[in-house]
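Much of the work behind modern protein science is quiet bookkeeping, done one molecule at a time. Below is the pair of lines this work produces for a single protein:

***
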Amino acid sequence: MPSLKRFYSPLENYLSPGKVLVIYGPRRSGKTTLIQQFLNQTSLRTQIDTGENIRVKALFVSQNPDLILEYLTDIDIYVIDGAQDIDNIGKGLKLIADSRPDLIVIATGSSSQIGLEKTFVIRRLTGFLVMERLKHCHYEASSSL
């Protein structure tokens, strides 16, 4: 079976230190591929985890800022692929964004079950819904759905 050629918006246009970029869409829609393509082209220090990783789940469920921040040392970009599998992930992502304003954080999810709608504003990214956490609750212009 031939694979389809996919075209993505440049991810770097949506990234900003101190904010969390959340990308969600249907399973197998290319979210992970989008992230991998971006990470292969960056010289920044990265760490990628999955929401299925038991250690990562326990870390975020703990809501312990010291443990979470210790885990995220010596990196510029942190990615959680499949973030919907982590309970209270929104609080953990907010904690990271507030405590590490220098860090770029990206989370992907296969559905709206990621549960971040109250913390993030939704924007369109070619084929995906994108939610960006508003820094300091300051309104920033974004396209509506």
